[in-house]
Amino acid sequence: MGWLELSFTILTFASLARARRICPFGTQEHVTNYSERQCCIAVFCDPGFESRLCENIGDEALCVPCPEGKYMSTSHWSRDMRLCQIKRACDDGQSVFDERGTTEDRVCQCDLDKGFYNKSVGDPCIRKRCEAGMELTSDGRCKPCRSGYFKPEANYEPCLKKKDCDHKYASHGNATHDVVCKEKASCQLLSEK
Ligand SMILES: *[C@@H]1O[C@H](CO)[C@@H](O)[C@H](O)[C@H]1NC(C)=O
Ligand SMILES: *[C@@H]1O[C@H](CO)[C@@H](O)[C@H](O)[C@H]1NC(C)=O
Ligand SMILES: *[C@@H]1O[C@H](CO)[C@@H](O)[C@H](O)[C@H]1NC(C)=O
């Protein structure tokens, strides 16, 4: 036997061995990464789903929704046996801006309420303290508390909402001091009875 003939024989043998796995008509071989094999009727999985072997009625493969914290952005045939991917973890100083369901990865943002901002996309989050009566903006400036809000000391936090005195104010406060409510006069309480 010549070298060419020999290698041809080996190749034929190898493909015959693989052909022993031929699936019944109408089904296709589904192979998991753990080398589990099954002949299933292939199904088309939408984004947000991952594929399982033939666990459905009548040997049909199955599409199951991504588990909590995972996503699948594309549609695919069940024989690709694709699994949903783990969503990114938001870094320190970041919070979830948009969870985006099971079809897209989550979007993180610098956590303004904890004093973090960023200069441009992909930049790390920077922490900045603002003086009493001021709070951080998303572009990294310190701006005075809005009307109805105050902040008594310098820190990384946003301004706080002022108390509601139901129209009975002793003092309306300012950017650093909360309002002071008027105490209900006791004679007023008596006359109400
Ligand atoms: C197998 O691995 C590939 C590549 O790492 C991955 O895309 C696929 O989702 C995995 N599928 C299974 C069933 O583990
Ligand atoms: C960084 O800033 C840009 C705007 O300049 C914003 O679109 C992006 O989402 C920010 N990234 C984070 C992680 O906050
Ligand atoms: C805010 O109000 C407090 C208490 O009434 C006062 O001591 C303080 O000077 C005021 N600050 C400003 C900037 O007006």
UniProtKB/TrEMBL annotation:
It comes from Capitella teleta. Keywords: Signal. The keyword Heme does not apply. Residues 1-19 form the signal peptide. The keyword Lyase does not apply. GO terms for molecular function: signaling receptor activity. One of its GO terms (biological process) is regulation of cell population proliferation. This is TNFR-Cys domain-containing protein. It comes from the Eukaryota.
